[in-house]
């Protein structure tokens, strides 16, 4: 039923207005036969229901002569003109309104002469058409504005989704590059030990053959690893990956740049390299976010081991009240969440009741 209401409502308005005009015309004794009025009224109403949206201009042109000669179709003309203003450009609606007003004025002048009823009828007709066209154009502009806002919102959401996806992919690529260095080192050690076992004099021929197979397999694995990971590298990235021991140097760089950074380092011995690399990246991203969103605000960093095998990294900074926060896409935090989830850890971040931004990550490792 709700789908038909937008189509039935204009038809009801047209019928009600047509009946009012026909009643006045019959009362004055100058109207057309009632049967002909009803027939033209039914046809005009059916045209409104069927063609008001798809062919409003053609419908208006067809109704023009009937609306001038008969009372019932005259009630459908304002509705048809409103549909033109709603679904077509403003100049088209204005042109049709001017055409209708011109034709109706000529017919009224011939039928009534330049009398008071003529002036009253012409004035009412012009005011009605101006009102109908203005309301239709206003609604059409409002719809277009709402549609443009909806499209911008959709594009913004799509852009945000793409930025988040790019951040995840970038973080995965960076993790893959880091793992290349780790795996390359370990596989190289495996190849060296296998090579030493292969040339050992005390080893039996079977052991030497097995060691040779291990050495060759390790060599092939290194070549495959270099081929795959080499595509992810960009120029200038062939350098050692930072670890937990490089965090103090990172903090010192921020201090030299003017930031007030406090570092509490507890229990950093014996932390696996992979966990240390992840902790370094978390501190690095947290410092970047703090400089971006709260420049000049003090930053506190705490790195400590937990009872369950793992490392906790906490970074907090006071939000500077005098500095407007820059908008951000959240891509850095998305990358950190991706990194932490890949190693089975937990990441929490957000504002605190005390007016600070707090980031806490827990990174596990196997015992």
From TrEMBL:
<feature type="transmembrane region" description="Helical">
    <location>
        <begin position="121"/>
        <end position="139"/>
    </location>
</feature>
<dbReference type="InterPro" id="IPR011712">
    <property type="entry name" value="Sig_transdc_His_kin_sub3_dim/P"/>
</dbReference>
<protein>
    <recommendedName>
        <fullName>histidine kinase</fullName>
        <ecNumber>2.7.13.3</ecNumber>
    </recommendedName>
</protein>
<dbReference type="GO" id="GO:0016301">
    <property type="term" value="F:kinase activity"/>
</dbReference>
<dbReference type="Pfam" id="PF07730">
    <property type="entry name" value="HisKA_3"/>
</dbReference>
<keyword id="KW-0597">Phosphoprotein</keyword>
<keyword id="KW-0418">Kinase</keyword>
<feature type="transmembrane region" description="Helical">
    <location>
        <begin position="93"/>
        <end position="115"/>
    </location>
</feature>
<feature type="domain" description="Signal transduction histidine kinase subgroup 3 dimerisation and phosphoacceptor">
    <location>
        <begin position="171"/>
        <end position="236"/>
    </location>
</feature>
<keyword id="KW-0067">ATP-binding</keyword>
<dbReference type="InterPro" id="IPR036890">
    <property type="entry name" value="HATPase_C_sf"/>
</dbReference>
<dbReference type="InterPro" id="IPR050482">
    <property type="entry name" value="Sensor_HK_TwoCompSys"/>
</dbReference>
<keyword id="KW-0547">Nucleotide-binding</keyword>
<feature type="transmembrane region" description="Helical">
    <location>
        <begin position="55"/>
        <end position="81"/>
    </location>
</feature>
<keyword id="KW-1133">Transmembrane helix</keyword>
<keyword id="KW-0808">Transferase</keyword>
<keyword id="KW-0902">Two-component regulatory system</keyword>
<keyword id="KW-0812">Transmembrane</keyword>
<keyword id="KW-0472">Membrane</keyword>
């Amino acid at each position: 039923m709700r789908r038909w209401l937008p189509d039935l409502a204009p038809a009801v308005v047209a019928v009600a207005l047509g009946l009012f005009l026909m009643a006045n015309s019959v009362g004055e004794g100058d109207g057309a036969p009632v049967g002909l009025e009803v027939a033209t009224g039914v046809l005009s109403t059916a045209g409104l229901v069927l063609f008001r949206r798809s062919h409003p201009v053609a419908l208006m042109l067809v109704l023009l002569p009937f609306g001038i000669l008969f009372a019932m179709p005259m009630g459908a003309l304002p509705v048809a003109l409103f549909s033109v203003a709603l679904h077509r450009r403003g100049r088209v609606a204005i042109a049709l309104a001017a055409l209708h007003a011109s034709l109706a004025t000529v017919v009224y002048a011939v039928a009534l002469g330049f009398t008071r009823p003529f002036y009253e009828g012409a004035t009412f007709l012009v005011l009605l058409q101006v009102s109908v066209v203005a309301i239709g154009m206003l609604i059409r502009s409002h719809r277009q504005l709402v549609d443009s806002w909806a499209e911008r919102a959709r594009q913004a959401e799509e852009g945000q989704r793409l930025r988040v996806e790019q951040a995840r992919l970038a973080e995965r690529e960076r993790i893959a590059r880091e793992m290349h260095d780790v795996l390359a080192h370990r596989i190289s050690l495996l190849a060296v030990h296998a090579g030493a076992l292969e040339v050992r004099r005390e080893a039996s021929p079977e052991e030497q053959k097995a060691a040779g197979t291990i050495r060759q397999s390790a060599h092939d694995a290194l070549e495959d690893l270099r081929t795959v990971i080499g595509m992810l590298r960009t120029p200038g990235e062939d350098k050692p990956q930072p670890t937990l021991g490089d965090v103090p140097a990172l903090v010192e760089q921020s201090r030299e740049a003017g930031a007030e950074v406090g570092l509490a380092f507890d229990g950093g011995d014996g932390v696996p390299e992979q966990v240390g690399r992840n902790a370094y990246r978390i501190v690095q991203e947290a410092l970047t976010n703090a400089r971006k969103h709260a420049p000049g605000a003090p930053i506190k960093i705490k790195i400590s081991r937990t009872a369950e095998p793992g490392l906790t990294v906490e970074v907090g900074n006071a939000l500077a009240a005098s500095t407007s926060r820059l908008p951000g896409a959240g891509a850095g935090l998305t990358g950190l969440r991706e990194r932490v989830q890949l190693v089975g850890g937990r990441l929490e971040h957000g504002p605190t009741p005390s007016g600070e931004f707090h980031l806490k990550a827990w990174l596990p490792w196997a015992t």
